[in-house]
Write a structure and sequence with these properties.
The chain has 265 residues and is of the alpha/beta class. The longest helix has 22 residues. It folds into 2 domains: 129 residues, Periplasmic binding protein-like II (D-Maltodextrin-Binding Protein, domain 2, 3-Layer(aba) Sandwich); 100 residues, Periplasmic binding protein-like II (D-Maltodextrin-Binding Protein, domain 2), CATH 3.40.190. Helix 2 runs antiparallel to helix 9. Strands 1, 4, 5, 6, 7, 8, 9, 10, 11 and 12 form a 10-stranded mixed sheet that branches. The chain is built from 9 helices and 12 strands.
């Protein structure tokens, strides 16, 4: 009888240990990713699910790292404050690498190229030639963006009356509504946001005009020893996804494969 009781207790103990072990498995570390919503990078489908190139790219990198992505909407104008205040772990949202940003933040391997373009109503396209005078035209761009820099510094654009807005999507809405004549946005954004089948079917890119040098996108992290290893790990994951073809597959889904800087061989 004593042996039966002892055996029963041993089995119960093992069962409890098994339950304890399964319930005490370490949870995946969370990576809080700062984004804004715009196609084709991070946006919601008709069912409210977050999709887009950056969304899938971030999920693939996190899978390689054994981390869990958490996407958090931020104010693009305050993105550096969000990062330094540790409310997010990185900025992963079609962010153009600039010398100022590289000085203040740790930037990943550049993974996509981009340029700044002018978007106007299709009916007004003929007005925007290389020799056009934009005096009296209302121009908008997202605050603290590469588009705003172009709007404020490019000789062609400086003649227009410029106003900064909160998002690239807002800039497009201003042009659609006629409250602005043109906006300066990322070409990559234009590819996914305007034209037939979108909410901005009557908007077009002035293909004959580009502003500034070719840009490159990168992921921004905090500088310092605490995040140095994370940046290295992310770069290694990007390289893995480039080599195994996963990054190109994601880009092809959003018609961005021609703009990849890695994994497009």
């Amino acid at each position: 009888m004593k042996k039966i009781i002892a055996l029963t207790l041993a089995l119960v103990t093992l069962a409890c240990c098994g339950l304890a072990l399964s319930s005490c498995q370490p949870e995946e570390e969370e990576l809080i990713i700062g984004i804004t919503y715009f196609a084709p990078m991070n946006y919601k489908d008709d069912s409210g699910n977050l999709i887009g190139f950056e969304t899938e790219f971030a999920k693939a990198v996190c899978k390689e790292l054994g981390m869990k992505p958490k996407f958090q909407e931020i104010d693009w104008e305050a993105k550096e404050n969000e990062l330094n205040g540790k409310t997010i772990d990185c900025i992963w949202n079609g962010m153009t690498i600039t010398s100022e940003r590289a000085e203040n933040m740790a930037i990943s391997t550049p993974y996509m190229k981009n340029k700044q373009v002018l978007v106007v109503k299709e009916e007004n396209l003929a007005q925007y030639t290389a020799n056009a005078d934009l005096t009296g035209k209302a121009l908008v761009a997202e605050k603290k963006s590469a588009g705003e820099t172009a709007a404020q510094t490019d000789e062609y654009l400086k003649k227009a009356t410029y106003t900064g807005v909160d998002k690239m999507a807002t800039a497009l809405m201003e042009v659609k509504a006629g409250t602005a004549d043109a906006c300066v946005i990322d070409y990559v954004t234009a590819l996914g946001s305007i034209g037939e089948g979108t909410d901005f079917a009557n908007l077009v890119v002035v293909e004959a005009l580009t502003f500034g040098a070719e840009e490159q996108y990168g992921i921004a992290f905090r500088k310092g020893e605490d995040d140095a290893q994370l940046v290295k790990d992310v770069n290694a994951a990007i390289q893995t996804l480039a080599e195994n073809g996963e990054l190109k597959r994601i880009a092809e889904k959003y018609n961005l494969e021609d703009y990849l800087l890695v994994g497009n061989n």
